[in-house]
Prior knowledge:
nine-stranded mixed β-sheet; 316 residues; disordered C terminus; 9 strands
Amino acid sequence: MINSPLISIITPTLNQGKFITQTIESVLTQDYPHVEYIVVDGGSTDDTLNILKSYGDSIKWISEPDRGQADAINKGFTMAKGEILAWVNSDDLLTRHAIRYVMSYFAAHPEAHFVYGDALALDQDGKPYGFRAHVRQMSFDELIGLGDLIVQPAAFWRRTLWESVGTLDSDLRYALDYEYWMRVAKSFHMQYIPVCLAQERLHASALTFKGSLRRVQEIERSARKHGGDGLPLYFRGEAAAIYTLEALKAVRKRRWSDARAYLREARQTQASLRSFLRYFGVISLFGYSSLVWIWLRLNVLRASVKSATKFPAEVI
Protein backbone atom coordinates (compact mmCIF):
# COMPACT_ATOMS: atom_id res chain seq x y z
CA MET A 1 0.00 0.00 0.00
CA ILE A 2 1.31 3.43 -0.97
CA ASN A 3 -0.56 5.08 1.90
CA SER A 4 -0.23 2.81 4.92
CA PRO A 5 -1.31 4.60 8.10
CA LEU A 6 -0.68 2.99 11.46
CA ILE A 7 -3.36 0.82 13.04
CA SER A 8 -3.27 0.09 16.78
CA ILE A 9 -4.73 -3.16 18.12
CA ILE A 10 -5.24 -3.54 21.88
CA THR A 11 -5.64 -6.86 23.70
CA PRO A 12 -6.77 -6.78 27.34
CA THR A 13 -6.03 -10.00 29.22
CA LEU A 14 -6.06 -11.67 32.61
CA ASN A 15 -5.09 -15.34 33.03
CA GLN A 16 -5.88 -16.25 29.43
CA GLY A 17 -2.70 -18.22 28.74
CA LYS A 18 -4.80 -20.99 27.24
CA PHE A 19 -5.90 -18.80 24.35
CA ILE A 20 -3.65 -15.73 24.10
CA THR A 21 -0.97 -17.23 21.85
CA GLN A 22 -3.54 -17.78 19.11
CA THR A 23 -4.80 -14.23 19.56
CA ILE A 24 -1.30 -12.77 19.32
CA GLU A 25 -0.45 -14.83 16.25
CA SER A 26 -3.65 -13.73 14.52
CA VAL A 27 -2.49 -10.11 14.87
CA LEU A 28 1.24 -10.52 14.17
CA THR A 29 0.69 -12.59 11.00
CA GLN A 30 -1.46 -9.94 9.32
CA ASP A 31 -0.19 -8.87 5.89
CA TYR A 32 -0.47 -5.15 6.55
CA PRO A 33 2.86 -3.37 7.15
CA HIS A 34 2.07 -0.90 9.94
CA VAL A 35 0.47 -2.54 12.97
CA GLU A 36 1.05 -1.42 16.55
CA TYR A 37 0.07 -4.23 18.90
CA ILE A 38 -0.36 -3.55 22.63
CA VAL A 39 -1.28 -6.17 25.22
CA VAL A 40 -2.53 -4.88 28.58
CA ASP A 41 -2.37 -7.56 31.26
CA GLY A 42 -4.17 -7.14 34.57
CA GLY A 43 -1.64 -9.11 36.61
CA SER A 44 -1.94 -12.67 35.38
CA THR A 45 -0.76 -15.53 37.56
CA ASP A 46 -0.80 -18.22 34.88
CA ASP A 47 1.74 -18.51 32.03
CA THR A 48 0.53 -15.35 30.25
CA LEU A 49 3.58 -13.26 31.16
CA ASN A 50 6.01 -15.92 29.92
CA ILE A 51 4.13 -15.99 26.65
CA LEU A 52 4.28 -12.20 26.32
CA LYS A 53 8.02 -12.16 27.09
CA SER A 54 8.65 -14.78 24.40
CA TYR A 55 7.59 -12.32 21.68
CA GLY A 56 10.39 -9.87 22.47
CA ASP A 57 9.99 -6.56 20.67
CA SER A 58 7.21 -7.83 18.39
CA ILE A 59 4.59 -6.57 20.81
CA LYS A 60 4.29 -3.86 23.45
CA TRP A 61 2.85 -4.95 26.77
CA ILE A 62 2.34 -3.92 30.35
CA SER A 63 1.24 -5.96 33.37
CA GLU A 64 -0.29 -4.27 36.39
CA PRO A 65 -3.53 -4.39 38.38
CA ASP A 66 -6.47 -2.60 36.80
CA ARG A 67 -10.14 -1.91 37.48
CA GLY A 68 -11.41 -4.36 34.91
CA GLN A 69 -11.53 -4.89 31.18
CA ALA A 70 -12.67 -1.39 30.25
CA ASP A 71 -9.89 0.16 32.31
CA ALA A 72 -7.31 -2.09 30.64
CA ILE A 73 -8.56 -1.20 27.14
CA ASN A 74 -8.57 2.51 27.96
CA LYS A 75 -4.94 2.19 29.12
CA GLY A 76 -4.03 0.57 25.83
CA PHE A 77 -5.67 3.25 23.72
CA THR A 78 -3.95 5.94 25.79
CA MET A 79 -0.63 4.34 24.79
CA ALA A 80 -1.65 3.83 21.15
CA LYS A 81 -0.44 6.02 18.30
CA GLY A 82 -2.47 4.62 15.39
CA GLU A 83 -4.90 6.46 13.14
CA ILE A 84 -7.22 3.43 13.21
CA LEU A 85 -8.10 1.67 16.47
CA ALA A 86 -9.58 -1.65 17.57
CA TRP A 87 -9.36 -4.18 20.36
CA VAL A 88 -9.29 -7.96 20.25
CA ASN A 89 -9.91 -9.86 23.47
CA SER A 90 -7.39 -12.52 24.44
CA ASP A 91 -9.69 -15.39 23.47
CA ASP A 92 -10.73 -14.00 20.06
CA LEU A 93 -8.92 -13.90 16.69
CA LEU A 94 -8.60 -11.75 13.60
CA THR A 95 -9.00 -13.46 10.24
CA ARG A 96 -5.95 -13.68 8.00
CA HIS A 97 -6.29 -10.49 5.94
CA ALA A 98 -8.68 -8.53 8.15
CA ILE A 99 -6.45 -5.51 8.77
CA ARG A 100 -5.45 -5.12 5.12
CA TYR A 101 -9.10 -5.23 4.11
CA VAL A 102 -10.20 -2.75 6.78
CA MET A 103 -7.41 -0.30 6.00
CA SER A 104 -8.21 -0.49 2.29
CA TYR A 105 -11.82 0.26 3.09
CA PHE A 106 -10.94 3.31 5.20
CA ALA A 107 -8.61 4.56 2.45
CA ALA A 108 -11.35 4.22 -0.16
CA HIS A 109 -14.01 5.76 2.10
CA PRO A 110 -12.53 8.81 3.87
CA GLU A 111 -16.03 9.66 5.13
CA ALA A 112 -16.21 6.40 7.11
CA HIS A 113 -15.45 6.63 10.82
CA PHE A 114 -16.57 3.24 12.13
CA VAL A 115 -16.77 -0.04 10.24
CA TYR A 116 -17.68 -3.52 11.40
CA GLY A 117 -17.86 -6.87 9.66
CA ASP A 118 -18.89 -10.45 10.19
CA ALA A 119 -17.37 -12.95 12.57
CA LEU A 120 -17.20 -16.71 12.87
CA ALA A 121 -18.41 -18.30 16.12
CA LEU A 122 -15.96 -20.73 17.76
CA ASP A 123 -16.25 -22.89 20.84
CA GLN A 124 -13.47 -23.19 23.43
CA ASP A 125 -11.69 -25.81 21.32
CA GLY A 126 -11.79 -23.72 18.15
CA LYS A 127 -14.63 -25.65 16.50
CA PRO A 128 -16.62 -23.31 14.17
CA TYR A 129 -20.37 -22.87 14.56
CA GLY A 130 -21.10 -20.65 11.58
CA PHE A 131 -21.04 -16.91 11.05
CA ARG A 132 -22.62 -14.83 13.82
CA ALA A 133 -26.11 -14.61 12.40
CA HIS A 134 -27.27 -11.42 14.12
CA VAL A 135 -24.70 -9.09 12.51
CA ARG A 136 -26.05 -6.69 9.87
CA GLN A 137 -26.39 -3.04 9.00
CA MET A 138 -28.46 -1.37 11.71
CA SER A 139 -29.78 1.96 12.90
CA PHE A 140 -29.39 3.58 16.30
CA ASP A 141 -32.99 2.70 17.20
CA GLU A 142 -32.35 -0.97 16.35
CA LEU A 143 -29.17 -0.97 18.43
CA ILE A 144 -30.96 0.14 21.60
CA GLY A 145 -34.26 -1.60 20.84
CA LEU A 146 -33.16 -4.99 19.53
CA GLY A 147 -29.69 -5.64 20.92
CA ASP A 148 -25.99 -5.60 20.12
CA LEU A 149 -25.76 -6.22 16.37
CA ILE A 150 -21.97 -5.83 16.32
CA VAL A 151 -19.36 -8.49 17.11
CA GLN A 152 -16.73 -6.54 19.03
CA PRO A 153 -13.45 -7.95 17.55
CA ALA A 154 -14.80 -7.22 14.05
CA ALA A 155 -15.16 -3.47 14.73
CA PHE A 156 -12.65 -0.75 13.77
CA TRP A 157 -12.78 3.05 14.02
CA ARG A 158 -10.77 6.21 13.45
CA ARG A 159 -8.84 7.92 16.24
CA THR A 160 -10.90 11.07 15.64
CA LEU A 161 -14.02 9.14 16.65
CA TRP A 162 -12.38 7.90 19.86
CA GLU A 163 -11.31 11.44 20.72
CA SER A 164 -14.85 12.67 20.11
CA VAL A 165 -16.85 9.94 21.86
CA GLY A 166 -14.49 9.37 24.78
CA THR A 167 -13.22 6.30 26.58
CA LEU A 168 -15.04 3.14 27.58
CA ASP A 169 -17.09 3.36 30.77
CA SER A 170 -14.86 1.65 33.34
CA ASP A 171 -17.83 1.18 35.70
CA LEU A 172 -19.29 -1.37 33.26
CA ARG A 173 -18.28 -5.01 33.37
CA TYR A 174 -20.56 -6.81 30.92
CA ALA A 175 -21.93 -4.17 28.53
CA LEU A 176 -18.83 -2.02 28.05
CA ASP A 177 -18.68 -2.53 24.28
CA TYR A 178 -22.45 -2.39 23.74
CA GLU A 179 -22.75 0.89 25.66
CA TYR A 180 -19.85 2.32 23.67
CA TRP A 181 -21.56 1.41 20.38
CA MET A 182 -24.65 3.30 21.57
CA ARG A 183 -22.58 6.43 22.21
CA VAL A 184 -20.90 6.11 18.82
CA ALA A 185 -24.20 5.60 16.98
CA LYS A 186 -25.56 8.88 18.36
CA SER A 187 -22.95 10.88 16.48
CA PHE A 188 -21.48 8.68 13.73
CA HIS A 189 -22.69 6.35 11.01
CA MET A 190 -21.59 2.77 11.70
CA GLN A 191 -20.92 1.00 8.41
CA TYR A 192 -21.39 -2.77 8.09
CA ILE A 193 -19.20 -4.56 5.54
CA PRO A 194 -20.15 -8.18 4.71
CA VAL A 195 -16.67 -9.62 5.15
CA CYS A 196 -15.51 -12.02 7.86
CA LEU A 197 -13.00 -10.01 9.91
CA ALA A 198 -12.83 -11.94 13.18
CA GLN A 199 -13.46 -15.19 15.01
CA GLU A 200 -15.28 -14.87 18.32
CA ARG A 201 -14.74 -17.62 20.86
CA LEU A 202 -17.84 -18.43 22.91
CA HIS A 203 -17.01 -20.44 26.02
CA ALA A 204 -18.38 -20.80 29.54
CA SER A 205 -15.51 -18.94 31.22
CA ALA A 206 -15.86 -15.87 28.97
CA LEU A 207 -17.06 -12.68 30.66
CA THR A 208 -20.12 -12.61 28.40
CA PHE A 209 -21.47 -15.74 30.07
CA LYS A 210 -20.78 -14.69 33.63
CA GLY A 211 -22.78 -12.41 35.83
CA SER A 212 -26.20 -13.60 34.67
CA LEU A 213 -28.51 -11.30 36.64
CA ARG A 214 -25.97 -8.48 36.88
CA ARG A 215 -25.29 -8.74 33.17
CA VAL A 216 -28.91 -8.32 32.00
CA GLN A 217 -29.42 -5.51 34.53
CA GLU A 218 -26.35 -3.71 33.21
CA ILE A 219 -27.55 -4.12 29.63
CA GLU A 220 -30.97 -2.68 30.50
CA ARG A 221 -29.45 0.28 32.36
CA SER A 222 -27.20 1.04 29.40
CA ALA A 223 -30.09 0.93 26.94
CA ARG A 224 -32.27 3.18 29.11
CA LYS A 225 -29.38 5.60 29.57
CA HIS A 226 -29.35 6.18 25.82
CA GLY A 227 -33.09 6.46 25.30
CA GLY A 228 -34.27 2.86 25.20
CA ASP A 229 -37.60 1.98 26.82
CA GLY A 230 -36.43 -1.22 28.50
CA LEU A 231 -34.41 -4.35 27.95
CA PRO A 232 -33.52 -4.81 24.25
CA LEU A 233 -35.62 -7.48 22.53
CA TYR A 234 -32.88 -10.05 21.93
CA PHE A 235 -32.08 -10.29 25.67
CA ARG A 236 -35.64 -10.66 26.96
CA GLY A 237 -36.01 -14.46 26.91
CA GLU A 238 -32.73 -14.92 28.75
CA ALA A 239 -33.60 -12.18 31.26
CA ALA A 240 -37.09 -13.56 31.96
CA ALA A 241 -35.59 -16.99 32.67
CA ILE A 242 -32.92 -15.53 34.96
CA TYR A 243 -35.43 -13.43 36.93
CA THR A 244 -37.75 -16.42 37.31
CA LEU A 245 -34.92 -18.61 38.57
CA GLU A 246 -33.90 -15.89 41.03
CA ALA A 247 -37.50 -15.77 42.23
CA LEU A 248 -37.46 -19.52 42.84
CA LYS A 249 -34.24 -19.18 44.83
CA ALA A 250 -35.86 -16.47 46.94
CA VAL A 251 -38.90 -18.67 47.57
CA ARG A 252 -36.71 -21.50 48.81
CA LYS A 253 -35.11 -19.05 51.25
CA ARG A 254 -38.55 -17.63 52.20
CA ARG A 255 -37.61 -14.17 50.96
CA TRP A 256 -41.13 -13.47 49.74
CA SER A 257 -40.73 -9.80 48.85
CA ASP A 258 -37.62 -10.57 46.78
CA ALA A 259 -39.46 -13.38 45.01
CA ARG A 260 -42.35 -11.08 44.10
CA ALA A 261 -39.91 -8.42 42.85
CA TYR A 262 -38.07 -10.90 40.63
CA LEU A 263 -41.33 -12.27 39.19
CA ARG A 264 -42.46 -8.71 38.47
CA GLU A 265 -39.21 -8.09 36.60
CA ALA A 266 -39.69 -11.33 34.65
CA ARG A 267 -43.16 -10.25 33.52
CA GLN A 268 -41.98 -6.77 32.59
CA THR A 269 -39.39 -8.14 30.15
CA GLN A 270 -42.30 -9.04 27.82
CA ALA A 271 -40.35 -12.02 26.52
CA SER A 272 -41.97 -14.46 24.11
CA LEU A 273 -43.08 -17.71 25.75
CA ARG A 274 -40.95 -19.77 23.38
CA SER A 275 -37.79 -17.81 24.14
CA PHE A 276 -38.45 -17.87 27.87
CA LEU A 277 -39.02 -21.63 27.95
CA ARG A 278 -35.88 -22.32 25.94
CA TYR A 279 -33.64 -20.40 28.33
CA PHE A 280 -35.49 -21.46 31.48
CA GLY A 281 -35.33 -25.14 30.60
CA VAL A 282 -31.66 -25.26 29.69
CA ILE A 283 -30.43 -23.05 32.54
CA SER A 284 -32.56 -24.96 35.07
CA LEU A 285 -31.08 -28.27 33.98
CA PHE A 286 -27.47 -27.29 33.28
CA GLY A 287 -26.80 -23.99 35.04
CA TYR A 288 -25.90 -20.52 33.76
CA SER A 289 -22.79 -21.81 31.99
CA SER A 290 -25.14 -23.58 29.57
CA LEU A 291 -25.90 -20.17 28.00
CA VAL A 292 -22.89 -20.69 25.76
CA TRP A 293 -24.39 -24.00 24.58
CA ILE A 294 -27.65 -22.24 23.71
CA TRP A 295 -25.91 -19.43 21.85
CA LEU A 296 -23.70 -21.74 19.79
CA ARG A 297 -26.56 -23.97 18.72
CA LEU A 298 -28.91 -21.11 17.97
CA ASN A 299 -26.16 -19.63 15.85
CA VAL A 300 -25.93 -22.87 13.85
CA LEU A 301 -29.69 -22.77 13.25
CA ARG A 302 -29.63 -19.15 12.14
CA ALA A 303 -26.30 -19.13 10.31
CA SER A 304 -27.92 -20.35 7.09
CA VAL A 305 -28.96 -16.74 6.60
CA LYS A 306 -25.28 -15.84 6.41
CA SER A 307 -24.33 -18.71 4.13
CA ALA A 308 -25.63 -16.75 1.13
CA THR A 309 -23.29 -13.83 1.84
CA LYS A 310 -20.38 -13.57 -0.56
CA PHE A 311 -17.15 -13.45 1.45
CA PRO A 312 -13.84 -12.91 -0.36
CA ALA A 313 -12.09 -16.29 -0.20
CA GLU A 314 -8.79 -14.80 0.86
CA VAL A 315 -10.35 -13.21 3.94
CA ILE A 316 -12.10 -16.28 5.37
